[in-house]
Amino acid sequence: MFGQKQARATPPSGLDESAPPQGEAPALAVVEKPAAVAPARAQPGDGNETLVRSDLFRTIRAGVFAAMNPSAAVGKTREQMKPAVETLVVDVAERERLNITISEQVQIVGELLNDMFGLGPIEPLLADETITDVLVNGPDQVWVERHGRLELTNCKFRDNAHVINVAQRIAAGVGRRVDESSPMVDARLADGSRVNVVLPPLAIHGASISIRKFSKRNITLHRMAQQGNLSAAMANVLKLASTCRLNVIVSGGTGSGKTTLLNALSHFIGHGERTVTIEDAAELQLVQPHVVSLETRPENAEGLGAVTQRDLVRNALRMRPDRIILGETRGAEAFDVLQAMNTGHDGSMTTIHANTPRDGITRLESMVMMANGNLPLLSIRRQIASAVHLIVQIERMRDGMRRVTRVTELVGMEGDVIITQDLFTFRYDASAYSEEVKGVFETGAVRPAFSQRAAYYGLEDALLEAMKP
Fold first, then answer.
1. Disordered: where is this region (predicted)?
2. Whole-prediction pTM
3. Diameter of the chain measured on Cα atoms
4. Cα first-last separation, the chain
5. What is the pLDDT of residue 293?
């Protein structure tokens, strides 16, 4: 667990026999670092941390792991191990005659505990709530996304083996494996953050780890309206759509906020409904009491045992669900999702990668044809028109802000074409070009086709009020 085996017998305390005996030196005695010594690198954090020389850290780390009794650490938490690690750091510094300050000692202890119990040097980035993505490109490059913009950090791994070790620890935490024979994996952290790992030889310049952080804030449609992600009228209509059990597809590009919006829509699912969620890596955070969460499983080393999203969608139909929420539709499971939406599972939701609602419809057609190539296109379009009620388009704009750019309703077929109408659109103001994207959310001068359905739920008046310009 700790990277090195013990070279000789270790006392029960877990400390090295060569540590100074009691009485020779205070356990926490440190010597101030000379002012002339320049630090080598920074550890990301609040910006006020003392910089630790990399050679100093390597020496102390090697000494601590050589002196540590691995069996004494098994089953212990980070806080339980912290006093022993602090003592070992001081002992190694004294034995090697290393000059370290109090702040350096605190930082070294934190880095060692991150290596033991966390994800090494990127652990502080995961604790930073302003960061939404952590992107590791080999040992020497760690990028983060903060407020929609990418930034290069000072964070570094020791070498590529260190990155691979962290990646394998992540995969093992959810019962998956990543190595040369299986160099790609989707996983999640204990807090729900989504992780993708690609190892060499596929990743040419070192192992790649991409982490989409799990938001600890409870994002609602009301909060999104306050932030300017959508208008208050949009939020009201989407709330009514979810309450009226409309089948909704959230469409957008990578990192546009599809899952966040899907979570916000799910808040209006009734507490008396049974909801089944299906994902590759579980990250949906439903607040209802009756939720069954299913997760796919990759194939094993023999190429067997894989459980796909399509398998789970088919099985979910036998679980008496009121609603099925598919984290992302990307393949043949689209056919089964449409079948579910058409057979009494109203209020089902999913996301799809597409640039416009019309592109989303075309992608659905393509994915259904992947599953059933013998189905005529007209039949597929009729299924889509009868199954899907709303497509909500969301986009990450050049200023980093995620905005709902269109709420489009599918109203039926005319000949062999699916007819749509825009309930809301975001109009970009081209005359006011600046760092910040400016525009207005416009309400379409149309009567929603689902107004009759809203009347069934006693919400028609609220819907028409929300649609007023």
1. 1-29
2. 0.76
3. 93
4. 62
5. 93
